[in-house]
Amino acid sequence: MGQVRPMKMDDALALLSWFFLGHSIFILVGTTTFVSVMIVVTNSFNIQDYFADYISELLTFWTGYNITFESASVPWRLGTIRLENVKIVCNEETWKTLQKKIAYRDGVEYNPGEVNTNFAYWDTTVESIDVTLSLWRWLDGRGVVKDAIIKGVRGVCDRTHITWDNWEPARRSPQFGDFELDSLVIEDALVTICNPRQRPITLAIFNAKLPTFRKQWLLYE
């Protein structure tokens, strides 16, 4: 302040502004580091279960899949956040439960009969998922995940209940929040795909490295 005097309101506001701006820039630029510090703190105070439940709820709302995981760790050598023993489920029950929560949050009436469940159901487990995060990307509408490494995938994709009525192929329109990963690595994946009136198909991926992975161009990439 340049002199010895009591702190004024302007001084307090300047200090709070500096504190808020500094932390905001840190979160935007170093999102992965910020979340890593949060994980270390929660593990130190033995509140990782509450943190895991909170992150699971966020991931469920962001993706539409019911995502739970056993633990989160920070492998500093890789500079990523690791989720271990991840369970990913999306079926009629989980989708209706999510739509009910969204309706309650938005203050609108929930009608189970109007919920569309004519899509593929997933029931998979993943040994580990390493991700790097970027809040800048999320604000830009490209999703919060920048890079991902997925290992040890096992599960089933159930499409036996899907029906088509006058279906015509159409290019998917991009939406705000669609993920756009700068890189995706998949190791040791084995998924069984069940289609209507066909025998199950097994999809195996031993090692895949994709330079980009975007929801808008999912099949192409």
UniProtKB/TrEMBL annotation:
Any one GO BP annotation for this protein: mitochondrion organization
Assigned keywords, A-Z: Membrane, Mitochondrion, Mitochondrion inner membrane, Transit peptide, Transmembrane, Transmembrane helix
GO cellular component, one term: mitochondrial inner membrane
Superkingdom: Eukaryota
Keyword Phosphoprotein: no
InterPro entries hit by this protein: Mdm31/Mdm32 (IPR012571)
Residue spans crossing the bilayer: 12-41
Keyword Cell membrane part of the UniProt annotation: no
Cell compartments where the protein resides: Mitochondrion inner membrane
Function noted in UniProt: Involved in the organization of the mitochondrial membranes and the global structure of the mitochondria. Also required for mitochondrial distribution and mobility as well as for the maintenance of mitochondrial DNA nucleoids structures.
PANTHER family: MITOCHONDRIAL DISTRIBUTION AND MORPHOLOGY PROTEIN 31
Family recorded in the similarity comment: Belongs to the MDM31/MDM32 family.
Protein name per UniProt: Mitochondrial distribution and morphology protein 31, mitochondrial
Native source organism of the sequence: Boothiomyces macroporosus
Lineage, uppermost ranks: Eukaryota, Fungi, Fungi incertae sedis, Chytridiomycota, Chytridiomycota incertae sedis
